[in-house]
Design brief:
This is GIY-YIG nuclease family protein. With 384 residues, this protein is of the alpha+beta class. It has helices spanning 6-11, 15-19, 32-45, 58-70, 74-79, 106-111, 121-126, 132-136, 154-165, 228-236, 249-252, 258-262, 299-303, 330-340, 368-382; strands spanning 145-146, 171-173, 185-188, 191-198, 202-203, 209-210, 213-217, 221-223, 243-245, 267-276, 289-295, 317-326, 350-351, 357-358, 363-365. The chain contains 15 helices and 15 strands. The longest helix is centred in the last third of the chain and has 15 residues, at 368-382.
Length: 384
């Protein structure tokens, strides 16, 4: 066989064909509307030419709604005319009833074919008009954070809610921005809020009277940066259903204060002292060994499962003393007590049934007199 050189290759009559670019295949793009319409046609073929109806079958109902939408669009009818083998688009539109009715059951939801409507799907994705107001007003919202010492404000909210329920206070529409003042309560988007303070008023860049507010909300958050006009805008926004809560006459006249009236009933929890009755563990040798705990509920219920709880040394316990904590944080009081007795804390490790090791940390070798004197001393200092 003759060995070819480079000249032989270039002079080969098939050279141009061998090195020619492979023609790219043209990809035929299918309009999604054709595919969607073909689903309707295929469904009808599998159901003996029956048109989709407003039934309880999700697939049929979806196709029914899609066909209904096509019959409202002349441009779609023109586009799909060549593939409309059942002449579906030449019919009058399907029965249409878009009236709003109250939804009482799953059947009511299934009867609403707007649930499956696909009209203007892509257009809606690109339509920003419904977000326009949100974008325009985004700068008026500042950040809410978890409220510090919310236990100071929680009784105020509870009292206001109680007074609203009893008719002592009323919920009324906002009437003026000037009625946003410290010490008053408002409702923004369904959340009760309290105006704790307002800074000095100033004229903003738009020439309006403005100020910075400190708001506390009933859900345990606060906002220290929101502006007066931003809150006013919220309260006057009909979509947020802003309202104002009326004041109590005796508070307005200076005869009472809301803070003073909350002290009549506000309880934050209970400090309790229990002694272990379990004689099968090493700790039974300590005469003055007590657990100091806190609960916001019933103490008896809290210790009911002590035999299965490492916190109670997996044994029965006896309640020795209890204190109801009012108008200050029971949890903070417990922490302060534990801190005072840190040097007298029992260091113990208890194996559990699953092989883990528990380390109860609320047991102290201390007398009841010491506990009582310490609690009284802490309460006095917390109220100074």
């Amino acid at each position: 066989m003759k060995k070819l050189n480079i000249d032989d290759i270039f002079s080969d009559p098939n050279f141009d064909e061998l090195v020619a670019d492979i023609p790219k295949k043209q990809v035929k793009r299918i309009d999604p509307e054709f595919e969607k319409f073909q689903e309707i046609v295929d469904w009808m073929k599998s159901h003996n030419g029956k048109e989709p109806e407003k039934s309880r079958d999700i697939t049929e109902r979806k196709l029914y709604s899609r066909l209904k939408g096509y019959r409202n669009k002349p441009e779609i009818q023109l586009k799909l005319a060549d593939v409309d083998e059942f002449n579906l688009l030449e019919h009058d539109n399907l029965e249409d009833d878009d009236s709003v009715e109250s939804v009482k059951s799953l059947d009511d939801i299934l009867k609403d074919d707007t649930l499956f409507r696909e009209e203007h799907d892509m257009n809606n994705l690109l339509d920003l008009s419904r977000y326009k107001r949100t974008i325009n007003t985004a700068d008026k919202y500042s950040v809410r954070k978890r409220a510090n010492e919310f236990e100071r404000y929680e009784p105020l909210f509870k009292l206001v809610q109680k007074e609203i329920a009893n008719g002592i206070r009323k919920i009324i529409p906002m009437d003026s921005e000037k009625n946003i003042i410290p010490g008053k309560f408002y409702i923004d988007n369904g959340v009760l809020l309290y105006v704790k303070s307002i800074s000095e008023y100033y004229t903003d860049k738009n020439g309006y009277r403005n100020a910075k507010l400190h708001l506390v909300y009933e859900n345990g958050t606060e906002n220290k940066e929101i502006l007066l006009r931003s809150l006013a805008s919220n309260l006057f926004d009909r979509t947020r259903h802003g309202k104002m809560v009326t004041e109590v006459i005796s508070d307005v006249m200076g005869e009472t204060t809301i803070e003073g009236r909350t002290t009549e009933f506000f309880s934050t929890g209970y400090i309790y002292v229990v002694k272990s009755l379990n004689e099968n563990i090493e700790t039974s040798k300590y005469q003055n060994l007590y657990k100091i705990g806190v609960t916001t509920g019933n103490i008896e219920q809290r210790i009911a499962n002590s035999n299965n709880d490492a916190t109670y040394l997996y044994g029965p316990v006896k309640i020795i003393a209890t204190w109801e904590v009012q108008n200050l944080s029971a949890k903070k009081l417990e922490s302060a007590i534990h801190h005072r007795f840190e040097a007298k804390q029992l260091q113990i490790s208890i194996p559990t049934a699953n092989g883990r090791i528990e380390n109860p940390r609320e047991w102290y070798i201390v007398t009841l007199e010491e506990i009582e004197n310490t609690i009284n001393d802490i309460i006095v200092k917390m109220n100074i």
